[in-house]
Amino acid sequence: MSNNKNYILACDIGGTHITSAIVVEDTWEILSNTIKRISFNSQENAKSIFQYWADNIQNCLNEFNQEIKQIGIAMPGPFDYENGIALMKGQNKYDSIYKLNTTEGILSGLKDKHIEIRYINDAAAFLQGEVFASKRNNEDRILGITLGTGLGSAVWSNNAKAFDADLWRSTYKNTIFEEYLVTRWFVNRFLALSGSKEKGFKEIAQNHNNTEEFEQLLAEYRTHLKDFLHFFSGEHVSKKFIIGGNIAKAWELIDKDNYFGEFEISIGQYEEKAAIIGAASLFQ
């Protein structure tokens, strides 16, 4: 490969996985042969979590076999993105790394201890990558939502970097929006409705599709999600949305009878690749 190009290692870290890949800066191309993905339990101890991440990144570096000096990481919040400090607590993920220095934890497991690491909110990275990859960067304003183990929200405006809208903890009903829109809501609510305990939304859909309890579950979720779309669009004055995350993969079940027709909604086409491109753009 030509050495006059700049290559960045970028990662997408979620509640249960990390995906790393090398990105070409000028074209935002992901080198497919360098993509490395692993799943893990985010409720393990801090040493194990940092080791999972470092091993995945090192495997990606080994595959590329050229010097990399920059790593961009898309990370769920709450997180101190400027200083690399994890602030997630009570979300069924990453409690063990609360207030720990993530950069130090990752670098301790890498051969090169001098790589620069920067962080971006995962929803902002997803939205940035989707806008770049789908060439929508001439539009005025697009809002992004990620639906998975957490609720992510981001705003992209014409020719500016996407930023974290930080709406996950906005007041809703007797608590916050995130408690009604993520995987644990599906698991807990379906258990209450049916008495059946499933691991996640995917398993609920596979094992209980067409049941009365499943239809009620979806009906309630649609209401919560529409309430959030109204709230988000009111805060940031746009009805254009790009929605991603594992829950969005079942959009054909969620958007029954064009329930969300008043909004201009696109489902993310690039999945983890969008977040990887967005994370690489930290060094643009």
UniProtKB/TrEMBL annotation:
InterPro entries given in the database record: ATPase_NBD, ROK
CDD domains linked: ASKHA_ATPase_ROK (cd23763)
Gene3D superfamilies hit by this protein: 3.30.420.40
Source organism, top-level taxon: Bacteria
PANTHER family in the cross-refs: BIFUNCTIONAL UDP-N-ACETYLGLUCOSAMINE 2-EPIMERASE_N-ACETYLMANNOSAMINE KINASE (PTHR18964:SF149), ROK (REPRESSOR, ORF, KINASE) FAMILY (PTHR18964)
Recorded family membership: Belongs to the ROK (NagC/XylR) family.
Protein name: ROK family protein
Species whose genome carries this gene: Sphingobacterium olei
Lineage, uppermost ranks: Bacteria, Pseudomonadati, Bacteroidota, Sphingobacteriia, Sphingobacteriales
